[in-house]
Amino acid sequence: MMRELSIIEDGAMLVRDGSIERVGPRSEIEPIIKADYDVVDAGWRVVMPGFVDAHTHPVFAGTRVDEYELRALGATYQEIAARGGGIRSTVRHTRAATLESLVKESRRYSQWFLRNGTTTVEAKSGYGLTVEDELKILRAVKQLNEETPLRYVPTFLGAHEIPEEYSERREDYIALVIEEMLPRVAKEKLAEYADVFCEIGVFTIEESRRILTGARELGLGLRLHADQLSLSGGARLAAELGAVTADHLEHTDADGIAALLSSGIQPVLLPCSVYALGHTRYPAAREMIDSGLAVVLATDFNPGSSPTPSILMALSLASTHMKMTPAESITAATINAAYSLGRGDFVGSLEAGKRADFVIHDCSDYREVAYFFGVEHPLAVFIDGREVFRRSSSA
Ligand code: NIG
Ligand code: FE
After folding, report:
1. In whole angstroms, what is the distance from residue 207 CA to residue 210 CA?
2. pTM value?
3. According to CATH, what is the number of the domain 51-340?
């Protein structure tokens, strides 16, 4: 079913008060257009739902261009992290930043998402790692959601790394996450989901289980960074806990895929981070789709392992390295992603009753969106029926 896009060849859409009232053949819509309606002519181009990017880390201070350079010279992501760089380096900068400056830096990324055709993003905290700094990031997400046209869905990721000052007493940090951070986040309704970076050298299966169980008791949905750099059993843990998604999954084996299937968990695949880390092992998307899983594609936008807001790049990598067809990739980055964020009835497809979040891509065959890579295809982007981005020129 991921290959069925329900394309209307000569289509039109009627939008009222920001939501889609009707969608169908132009011959049916055109006669009901009144003189005072605003008409947007897509000029025989592809019109698609705005992309839903269901895994991003978009609020952080500074960049990691210095580490990028070191990696070009041969250092690995894990070596840099072991030396106090990596996530911990972004944590130092993010702690030093004010809420205002974080919002200011992140507005730039918000604009990047929009110009790539993304209209909803899931946004994780995880670069604060103190009660106040994690809340600061989630408040920045809230402010960005209110101030920018982009829709943000907040996820608490206090268990992204053990902060430096807790390196000799990790139990105390885990207690802080469970006993102080999670209750504050839930009480202030600053996140809909909780996530843990479950990985060798970061959080163990047992620690991840405790943190996520605590989150679940507070009513948060669960997502999980699972089996990214090694087969640590994250997919099976996600299944055991009834998570909504298991993300990354580069090392997940057949047993892990079967576990996801039996618990109805959506895999969120992040090929841009595989690419940007210079790795060669992509997740087994073909097996996952063929087994019946509702696969999601996302960017993993973050300053370390995936510095790109381009879901278009993820679509390209999905075809070239993961053997997904363009139609499957588009489904994965729109409707499947929307369902993974609890917004399947709200966005992710162009259907009556949903919000009018749509993109006019500068092409007439939808497959070009995944095929020509390194091109920003969107000519214009609409959220709630309002134009939020338009490229200044087109051929
Ligand atoms: O999804 N895996 C953990 N977190 C991020 C990396 C974050 C960073 O390097 O800053 C990821 O790849
Ligand atoms: Fe991530």
Report:
1. 5
2. 0.97
3. 3.20.20.140
